[in-house]
């Protein structure tokens, strides 16, 4: 950041001193400034052939870190990586001045991602051809929730078994999560079943738009939703679910007796080389704990050692 207005030299370059480190800096437009000595990082970026994400401090337009993404093959993988970087660096904190940028969206970047290749992004549902994890069609057409259009528990069981085999084969981490709306009885009594259905649909839409993960979303028993997330970390998923929880809680049209809507979430990491049913139980226990503690919270389950 310049300590004083830059002085333009005969070559059309503005020169000043940095207000923070007192080192000489230069600019071509008095907007972006660079150290007068050493490399012009912007020029280095312009000459690069590989796409990357970069973390920037918006207070002084300073690049904090770079993250190459040429090893990622699909946009969902890039989105997942972006969410992980944001979570690790507190980008979504209201007081944070950090922002994450995509070099491909800058004027000097036109490098596309590699085309999606078939492989571990697919799984086989026993009753049909391979389907992508996102938006899996029900194995049985009757196994479909009429309100949300989501597949039911039967389809989840088929997906769960196939994905656990896939995870063991390829070493991909999985996360299982249960989500249950809070205080639905009060809402239905106070505002009617139609209003309750609108809240269920809202929650389904929010969960279906969970950013950055390859997911399968189904209706579980009762009012519950169940999520299976591929190549995910439980801590990152917990933060994303907590953001959804806050979004739902802000919908005051569903408030009853001055208390807003909420969701209780329980989740667990599925060990690649362990019993996936232990994670299923851990997530279920975490959900019951979240509800027992008053609901409207996200609880991470603890894996129990087999007897």
Summarize this structure as a short list of keywords or feature phrases:
single chain, 307 residues, alpha+beta, Alpha-Beta Plaits, 2 domains, five-stranded mixed beta sheet, four-stranded antiparallel beta sheet, 14 strands
What would the principal axes of the Cα set say about the shape? elongated
| Helical proportion, percent range | 25-40%
Which strand order do you get reading across the main beta sheet?
11-12-10-13-14
Radius of gyration, CA atoms, in whole angstroms:
24 Å
Structural class: alpha+beta
Number of domains: 2
Beta-strand fraction estimate? 15-25%
Please report the number of helical segments: 7
CATH superfamily of the largest domain: Reverse transcriptase/Diguanylate cyclase domain
CATH class descriptor of the largest domain: Alpha Beta
Which fold name fills CATH's third level, the topology of the largest domain? Answer: Alpha-Beta Plaits
Characterize the main sheet.
5 strands, mixed
Region (Disordered): 89-112, 119-138
Protein name: diguanylate cyclase
GO molecular function, one term: diguanylate cyclase activity
EC number: 2.7.7.65
């Amino acid at each position: 950041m310049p300590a004083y207005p830059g002085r333009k030299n005969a070559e059309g370059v503005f020169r000043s001193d940095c207000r923070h480190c007192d080192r000489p800096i230069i600019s071509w437009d008095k907007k972006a400034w660079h150290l007068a000595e050493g490399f012009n990082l912007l020029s280095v970026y312009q000459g690069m052939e590989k796409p990357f994400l970069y973390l920037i401090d918006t207070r002084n337009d300073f690049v904090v870190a770079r993250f190459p993404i040429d090893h990622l093959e699909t946009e969902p993988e890039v989105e997942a990586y972006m969410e992980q970087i944001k979570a690790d660096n507190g980008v979504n904190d209201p007081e944070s001045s950090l922002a994450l940028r995509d070099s491909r969206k800058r004027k000097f970047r036109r490098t596309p991602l590699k085309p999606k290749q078939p492989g571990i992004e697919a799984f086989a549902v026993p009753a049909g051809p391979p389907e992508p994890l996102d938006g899996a069609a029900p194995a049985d057409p009757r196994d479909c929730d009429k309100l949300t259009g989501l597949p039911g528990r039967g389809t989840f069981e088929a997906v769960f078994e196939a994905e656990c085999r896939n995870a063991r084969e390829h070493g991909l981490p999985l996360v299982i999560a249960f989500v249950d709306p809070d205080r639905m009885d009060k809402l239905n009594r106070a505002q009617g079943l139609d209003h309750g259905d609108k809240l269920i649909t809202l929650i389904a839409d929010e969960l279906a738009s969970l950013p950055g993960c390859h997911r399968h979303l189904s209706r579980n028993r009762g009012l519950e939703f169940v999520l299976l997330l591929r190549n995910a970390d439980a801590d990152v998923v917990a933060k994303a679910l907590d953001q959804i929880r806050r979004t739902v809680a802000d919908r005051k049209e569903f408030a009853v007796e001055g208390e807003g809507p909420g969701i209780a979430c329980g989740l667990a990491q599925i060990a690649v080389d362990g019993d996936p049913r232990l994670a299923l139980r851990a997530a279920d226990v975490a959900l019951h704990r979240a509800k027992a503690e008053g609901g409207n919270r996200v609880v991470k389950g603890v894996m129990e050692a087999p007897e």
